[in-house]
C-alpha cells in the first residue's frame, strides 16, 4: 500500500463507507446493427443474464495514517490488480488519477482508469459543499459472470498455493485479462456501468444519488456513457451502456454533439462541464422504450459461441463509408430494414410465436443485402449456413448474427424447455465434428433487468 501524509481529497477525515455491491448486464443487439449509430433509426437490444459485478469496500487504515488510493482488482485473472493515487486538479479540472506500481509491474486498464476519473470528478463536484464529505480510499473488486470469455478447454487454475476455482458463477482464468477470449457480450459497457454505479452508491448520500429513482438511473446512464465514450476514444451508439443501465429496450441514441465539446479531464473547467452535462437530463435525447423488448412466454433468447470473434471497428468504418457514398440506395435499404426490425419487435411484443421465424428471416435477408452492398461480411456464409441449419431444429424459431455481425456469438430464439436445449446441444456437437469447428450453446439467457444492487453473500469466497 502507498502511505501518504497528505490528507485525502476533501476537508475532514472521510467517513467509513459501507461495503456495497452492484451488477450490470451484458447485451445483445438483436436488430438494428449499424442503423442504431444514426439517430434516425433504432436498435432492439436485450440485456443478458451474464453480469459484471463491482463490490466497493473501504480500505481500513491505522488511525493517523492517511491513504489516498483506489485499488481495483479482477481476481478471476492473473496479474489483474490496478492501483491509483488521486488528487484534485487546479482550476476545476476534476480528480486526476495516477496509476501506481503493483510490485515491479504496471499494466494499464483504460476502461477502469477513465471511469475512475469521470466518476470521482462528478462525485467530488456534486458533494463539494458538504463539509463532512471527502473521498476515502476504496477497494473495488470486479467479478464477471462466466460466458463473457471462453474458458480454454484445459483450464481451471489450481496449484498448491492457489485456491481451487470456486464452482459456479465466476470462473478463474489461467491467463491475464488481455489474453482473454471475449465472446462479444459487451464486457466494457457492463464494467463501466457497474463501476460507475458502485462508486456513486458508495460515496454519495441518497439525497445526491438514489440508484432506485428514475433521476438516479438517468445520472448513471449519462455519466457511464460519457466515461465509456472517452475510454473507447470514440462516440459509438451507446446501446451497450443503455442496456447495462436500463436492461432490454428499443434504443434511440443520443446526439453525438452532446459529448463532443467536453474539456479534457484535468483541464480547466472539466469538473463543472461534466456535471452540467451529466445532470442536464433534458439535454439528453436518448430514447429508451420497453415495448417489444421482451421474449414471448415460453421463448428464450440464447447465444451460440462460434469461438472466433470479429474486428468490429473495420466493419463499422466500411459500412458507414458505403452509407455515405451510396446516399439514396443505402437510405432506402436502411429504411426498409428499420421497418422489418420494428416488425420483429412488434411480433415479440404481441407474443406471436408463430410469426417469429418469418420476422427473423425478413431481417436477415436485408442484413445480407447490406453486407453484399457494402462489401462487409455482416452475415458471413458460414454463419448463414449454421443459422439456416439451426432453424430446422425442432423448437428453434431462428436466429441472427447480432450487433455488427461477423463471427461474434449468434443469437437464437428458441423454446424455453430442456428438450429443445438438449436437441440444440446435440446438433451443435455434431456440427462441430462435421465442420471441424468449436460451436457451443452458452449458458447465458436474455434478461430484461438492467443495473441492480446485489447482496454481498453472492460473492462469498471472492472478497478480500
Ligand atoms: N473482468 C474485467 N475486469 C477488468 N476490466 C475488464 C473486465 N472485462 C472487460 N474489462 C475492460 O474492458 C476491455 C474490453 O473492452 P472491449 O470494448 O474491447 O470489449 P467488449 O466490450 O467485451 O466488446 P464487445 O462490445 O464486442 O462485446 C478490457 O480491455 C478491459 O479494459
Ligand atoms: C455496429 C454497431 O451498431 C453495433 C456493434 O455491436 P456489437 O459490439 O457487435 O454487439 C456499433 C454501435 O452501435 O456502436
UniProtKB/TrEMBL annotation:
<dbReference type="InterPro" id="IPR006204">
    <property type="entry name" value="GHMP_kinase_N_dom"/>
</dbReference>
<dbReference type="InterPro" id="IPR035102">
    <property type="entry name" value="Phosphomevalonate_kinase"/>
</dbReference>
<feature type="domain" description="GHMP kinase N-terminal">
    <location>
        <begin position="182"/>
        <end position="247"/>
    </location>
</feature>
<keyword id="KW-0756">Sterol biosynthesis</keyword>
<keyword id="KW-0752">Steroid biosynthesis</keyword>
<comment type="similarity">
    <text>Belongs to the GHMP kinase family. Mevalonate kinase subfamily.</text>
</comment>
<dbReference type="InterPro" id="IPR036554">
    <property type="entry name" value="GHMP_kinase_C_sf"/>
</dbReference>
<dbReference type="InterPro" id="IPR016005">
    <property type="entry name" value="Erg8"/>
</dbReference>
<keyword id="KW-0444">Lipid biosynthesis</keyword>
<keyword id="KW-0753">Steroid metabolism</keyword>
<dbReference type="GO" id="GO:0005524">
    <property type="term" value="F:ATP binding"/>
</dbReference>
<dbReference type="GO" id="GO:0004631">
    <property type="term" value="F:phosphomevalonate kinase activity"/>
</dbReference>
<dbReference type="Pfam" id="PF00288">
    <property type="entry name" value="GHMP_kinases_N"/>
</dbReference>
<keyword id="KW-0418">Kinase</keyword>
<keyword id="KW-0547">Nucleotide-binding</keyword>
<dbReference type="GO" id="GO:0005777">
    <property type="term" value="C:peroxisome"/>
</dbReference>
<keyword id="KW-0067">ATP-binding</keyword>
<keyword id="KW-0808">Transferase</keyword>
<dbReference type="InterPro" id="IPR020568">
    <property type="entry name" value="Ribosomal_Su5_D2-typ_SF"/>
</dbReference>
<dbReference type="GO" id="GO:0010142">
    <property type="term" value="P:farnesyl diphosphate biosynthetic process, mevalonate pathway"/>
</dbReference>
<keyword id="KW-1207">Sterol metabolism</keyword>
<dbReference type="GO" id="GO:0006696">
    <property type="term" value="P:ergosterol biosynthetic process"/>
</dbReference>
<keyword id="KW-0443">Lipid metabolism</keyword>
<dbReference type="GO" id="GO:0019287">
    <property type="term" value="P:isopentenyl diphosphate biosynthetic process, mevalonate pathway"/>
</dbReference>
<protein>
    <recommendedName>
        <fullName>Phosphomevalonate kinase</fullName>
        <ecNumber>2.7.4.2</ecNumber>
    </recommendedName>
</protein>
<dbReference type="InterPro" id="IPR014721">
    <property type="entry name" value="Ribsml_uS5_D2-typ_fold_subgr"/>
</dbReference>
<comment type="pathway">
    <text>Isoprenoid biosynthesis; isopentenyl diphosphate biosynthesis via mevalonate pathway; isopentenyl diphosphate from (R)-mevalonate: step 2/3.</text>
</comment>
